[in-house]
Design a protein that fits this description.
The complex is a heterodimer of chains A (172) and B (399). By secondary structure, chain A is α/β, with parallel strands linked by helices. Helices cover 19% and strands 29% of the residues of chain A. Chain B is 44% helix and 12% strand. The mean pLDDT of chain B is 86. Classes of the chains: A alpha/beta (172), B alpha+beta (399).
C-alpha cells in the first residue's frame, strides 16, 4: 500500500489520535520564500494517543504493521516549543512503511509508553528519555541506557550546554 | 538501581534445559550476581551483561551499554553533511561500506540526485564484499567464542584478501568513507574488477571449508542447536532484522522486499536467493540457524557481485555536487540491509549546510535487546553462545 492508501485506511478505521499528514511538495514558483519540502510523507498523530494509534496500526488486518523499526525524537531548534517524536513502522506482510510524527510540548514532555504494544520500543524509549528528557509513562525499566546514571541534562536538545567537568575529569 | 538485575525469574519458573540424554539435578543455591564483561572476549567489544545465576542456570540478565558511546548523533548536528561520512564508518566498523551507503542514500533521498549507473554497481560490489567480510568475522569469531580456534583463521584468510581489495580501491582497510553522497569517491583502479572476479572464484572454492570445518561439525551443532531459541513472534515484537529474523524463519530481506539501488533488478534476474532458516538441527530460531543463515548469505553475496561485474558499464562514478552541500529542507528515513540487519538513517534538514537531526537506527542495538528475554533460563556456558549468535558490534549499539 502506498502512503495515500495507508492514510485512507487509517481514516476509515478511525485510528485514534490521527491529526493529519504531511507530504513532500515542490517549491511554489510564485512564492520565492517557499522552498518546498523533500523526503518522505508522514502521518501526524497526537502524542498522548500515540500508543493507541500504533496499536490500531498493528492490529488492523490491512495495515498489519508487525514491527516498530525505530522510535526517536527530534529537537527542531532552540526556540521551538515542541519536540517531535518520530516513529517508523514496518509491515513485513504487505511490504510498506509508515512514518509517524507526534508533537510534544517541551514544557511537558511526557507521553504514554509504547512498550505494551511493541517490545522493540523499550530500548528506543530509554535512549529517547535520556537524550531528550522525555518521560514515557508506564515504561517498565526507565533507566539510562547509553549515558551514565548521574548524567545531567539532555544532550540531544538544542539548548544543551556541554558540561565543564565530569567527576573531576575536565571536558574542555 | 543500575547494578541490579530487574528481570529475575521467580523460583517456580526455573527449569533446566533437558534433552532426553541429560539428567537434571534440582539443587538450589543462593542467587549470585556476576558481571559478564565489560572486558570479556566473547562480548565482542566493551559491553557488560549483568547476570543473576542460580548455580549454572541464568535466572536474569541485563545488558549494560554505553561504554563506547561516542555521541555520533550529536556530532551529526554539528558538522556539515559530507563531513559526517567518516563518522558512519565508526559505528559498525566491520561493515563500514554499508554504513557509508546507508547514510549516502538517506541524504540523496533529500537531495533527489541521480546516481550514475557505474557508481551504483560499484557500490553494490563494495557493499556485498563487505557483507562477506562481516559475516566471516561473525562466523569465525563465533567459533572462537565457543571453542573452535581453527575456522577463525580460515575465515580471516579470505577476509584479508577482501580488505586488500578495498585498500586498492580506496586506500583504507577498515574505515573506508568510499561511498560518498552522489556516488563513490573514485573509479576502480585498472585490474580491480578482474581481481574481484578472481576473489569470487577462490571464495567459492574455500566456502565449503567453513561448512565442513565448523557449521556441520558435531561439536558445534551440539553447542548451538536448541540454544537461544528466538520465536517468530519474539523476533517481530523486538523489531529484529536481517540475519536475526531470517534465523527465526521469517522470509524478509530489504534487498528483495523494499529494493534500493538496483537490487530489484538483480532479484528479478534471479541472480540471488534469500536463505531462510528451517530449523534443520534443532528448534527453529536457535543459534545454529542464525549462523547457518550467515554462512549461506556469503555465497549469495558472491552471486550478486558476479551479476554486477557482468553488467558493469562505463561512465562517471560521482554526480556533480557542490563541495559544501546544502540539502533541501525535509526529512527522510532510509533503511538498508546491513550484514546485521536494517540500518536506518533518519535525517532532517532545514535547508542548511548542517543537519538538524541525524538519527542512526543501528541493527545491533535492536538485536541486542532480545537478550533480556532469551538469556534467562539458559545455562551460563550457553550465554556465550547466545551473545555470539546475535552478532553485535558494540560500536553500533553505542554509536
Amino acid at each position: 500500500m502506498d502512503f495515500q492508501g495507508i492514510l485512507d485506511r487509517l481514516t476509515a478505521i478511525r485510528a485514534p489520535g490521527l491529526v493529519g499528514s504531511d507530504e513532500p511538495r515542490k517549491a511554489d514558483p510564485k512564492d520565492k520564500k517557499d522552498k518546498g519540502r523533500a523526503g518522505d510523507p508522514f502521518a501526524i498523530v497526537d502524542a498522548q494517543l500515540l500508543s493507541e494509534f500504533v496499536r490500531a496500526c498493528r492490529d488492523d488486518d490491512r495495515l498489519h504493521f508487525e514491527q516498530l523499526v525505530d522510535l526517536t525524537a527530534t529537537d527542531p531548534s532552540k526556540d521551538a516549543a515542541e519536540l517531535w517524536i518520530n516513529v517508523q513502522l514496518l509491515s513485513l506482510k504487505f511490504r510498506h512503511r509508515l512514518a509517524i510524527k507526534a508533537l510534544l510540548p517541551k514544557a511537558a514532555a511526557s507521553l504514554p509508553s509504547l512498550v505494551p504494544v511493541y517490545r522493540a520500543s523499550q530500548w528506543h524509549e530509554r535512549e529517547c528519555a535520556e537524550m531528550f528528557g522525555i518521560r514515557f509513562v508506564g515504561h517498565p525499566d526507565p533507566r539510562n541506557i547509553l549515558l551514565p546514571d548521574d548524567w545531567v541534562g539532555s544532550p540531544l536538545r538544542k539548548d544543551y550546554e556541554f558540561p565543564k567537568e565530569y567527576h573531576g575529569i575536565s571536558c574542555e | 538501581m543500575a547494578n541490579e538485575v530487574t528481570n529475575t525469574m521467580p523460583p517456580s519458573t526455573r527449569l533446566r534445559r533437558t534433552d532426553a540424554s541429560e539428567v537434571t539435578v534440582d539443587i538450589r543455591t543462593p542467587d549470585l550476581e556476576i558481571n559478564f564483561g565489560p572486558q570479556h572476549p566473547a562480548t565482542h567489544g566493551v559491553m557488560r551483561v549483568l547476570m543473576r545465576t542460580d548455580g549454572e542456570l541464568v535466572t536474569g540478565a541485563q545488558p549494560h551499554l554505553g561504554y563506547l558511546h561516542r555521541c555520533a548523533e550529536k556530532i551529526g548536528e554539528n558538522v556539515e553533511w559530507l563531513q559526517y561520512l567518516p563518522y558512519t564508518d565508526r559505528y559498525d566498523y566491520l561493515a563500514s561500506m554499508n554504513n557509508n551507503l546507508g547514510y549516502s542514500l538517506a541524504v540523496e533521498a533529500l537531495l533527489g540526485v541521480e546516481i550514475p549507473r557505474r557508481a551504483t554497481l560499484i557500490r553494490i560490489i563494495c557493499a556485498e564484499l563487505n557483507r562477506i567480510g562481516s559475516h566471516l568475522v561473525a562466523f569465525g569469531t563465533y567459533g572462537l567464542d565457543i571453542g573452535a580456534f581453527t575456522p577463525f583463521l580460515y575465515c580471516f584468510r579470505e577476509r584479508e584478501w577482501m580488505m586488500s581489495l578495498f585498500e586498492k580501491i580506496c586506500g583504507a582497510r577498515l574505515t573506508y568513507s568510499y561511498i560518498r553522497i552522489g556516488g563513490v569517491f573514485n573509479d576502480a583502479p585498472p585490474g580491480w574488477f578482474e581481481e574481484v572476479a578472481r576473489f569470487c572464484d577462490v571464495f567459492e572454492q574455500k566456502w565449503p571449508e567453513y561448512v565442513d570445518l565448523l557449521l556441520v561439525n558435531q561439536i558445534y551443532v551440539k553447542r548451538t542447536a536448541n540454544v537461544g531459541v528466538i520465536s517468530r513472534e519474539m523476533a517481530l515484537d523486538f523489531g529484529l532484522s536481517g540475519t536475526m529474523v531470517r534465523g527465526s524463519g521469517i522470509d524478509w530481506d530489504l534487498r528483495r522486499d523494499m529494493p534500493y539501488m538496483c537490487y530489484g533488478e538483480i532479484w528479478r534476474d534471479g541472480a540471488f536467493t534469500i536463505p531462510v532458516a528451517k530449523g534443520e538441527m534443532g528448534a527453529l530460531g536457535d543459534c545454529w540457524d542464525r549462523s547457518w543463515v550467515r554462512v549461506m548469505e556469503m555465497m549469495e553475496s558472491i552471486k550478486i557481485v558476479r551479476w554486477c561485474l557482468d553488467h558493469m558499464v562505463d561512465g562517471a562514478v560521482i554526480g556533480e555536487l557542490p563541495k559544501t552541500l546544502k540539502v533541501p529542507a525535509g526529512e527522510a528515513y532510509v533503511g538498508i540491509e546491513n550484514p546485521r540487519g536494517e540500518l536506518g538513517h533518519y535525517v532532517v534538514s532545514d535547508g542548511g549546510k548542517v543537519s538538524v537531526r541525524t538519527r542512526v537506527r543501528g541493527p545491533s542495538f535492536c538485536n541486542l535487546a532480545v537478550l533480556e528475554d532469551i538469556l534467562p533460563g539458559s545455562l551460563v556456558g550457553d550465554a556465550v553462545a547466545i551473545i555470539g549468535s546475535t552478532d553485535i558490534v558494540v560500536g553500533e549499539t553505542d554509536r
